[in-house]
């Protein structure tokens, strides 16, 4: 499709700019027909070369604009994904706080919360790691975006960086799931209180 458009543009430009001045200088009185023919051929070739140079310059400008558009799209993609990851980490922190308050209530009721408390501390550590990974990847991605690499390569590098951060968020989430499973109703029973009859 691109070749067809390129050829079509070249033909249109050649007919609109090139052939009319070359044919207008056709002078029969001063030169022989062979010389006139050579002159016309030479002018047509010059016009073709000029048009080819203009066409390549326009093509380069178009490629630069496309590359810039791709970079803008990659930057927008990165912004959306980083926003989602940041929100996910905040959500995990809120869940950890809610679990912590729930464990406090269970402890007040006399339940043994030692195992879930250890699991919660592990989950909080993983959430902190995920938060730090999100912050660190921002600077790495800015460096990647400011490099002179091709937009396709930039996109792949960003994708690789984000996949590592995504995995740390998944690990933090699974640690919270472990905590929730450890405190499911019925698993933590209050410790038996001494009966008043004794």
Explained architecture:
This protein has 198 residues and is mainly alpha-helical. It has one domain (2-182). Helices cover 82% and strands 0% of the residues. It is built from 4 helices and no strands. Helix 1 packs antiparallel against helix 2. The mean pLDDT is 82.
List strands and helices in order, with pairings:
Elements (H helix, E strand, L loop, with lengths): L1 H23 L8 H76 L5 H32 L5 H32 L16
Helix pairs in contact: 1-2, 2-3, 2-4, 3-4
Shape: rod-shaped
Work out the helicity level.
over 70%
The secondary-structure element order is HHHH
- Report the structural category: mainly alpha
Q: Termini separation (Å)?
A: 93 Å
Number of helices: 4
* Largest sheet data: none
Q: What's the β-strand tally? A: 0
- Portion in beta strands: under 5%
Looking at the chains present, what oligomeric state does this protein adopt?
single chain
Low-confidence stretches: none
Mind telling me the C-alpha Rg?
Answer: 36 Å
């Amino acid at each position: 499709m691109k070749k067809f458009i390129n050829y079509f543009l070249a033909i249109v430009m050649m007919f609109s700019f090139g052939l009319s001045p070359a044919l207008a200088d056709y002078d029969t009185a001063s030169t022989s027909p062979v010389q006139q023919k050579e002159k016309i051929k030479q002018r047509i070739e010059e016009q073709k070369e000029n048009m080819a140079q203009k066409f390549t310059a326009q093509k380069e400008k178009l490629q630069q604009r496309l590359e810039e558009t791709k970079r803008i799209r990659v930057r927008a993609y990165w912004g959306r994904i980083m926003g989602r990851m940041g929100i996910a980490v905040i959500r995990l922190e809120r869940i950890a706080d809610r679990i912590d308050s729930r464990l406090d209530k269970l402890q007040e009721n006399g339940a043994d919360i030692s195992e879930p408390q250890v699991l919660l501390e592990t989950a909080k550590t993983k959430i902190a790691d995920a938060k730090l990974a999100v912050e660190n990847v921002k600077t790495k991605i800015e460096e990647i975006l400011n490099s002179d690499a091709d937009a396709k390569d930039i996109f792949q590098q960003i994708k690789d960086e984000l996949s590592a951060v995504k995995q740390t968020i998944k690990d933090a989430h699974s640690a919270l799931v472990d905590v929730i499973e450890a405190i499911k109703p019925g698993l933590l029973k209050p410790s038996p209180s001494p009966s008043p009859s004794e």
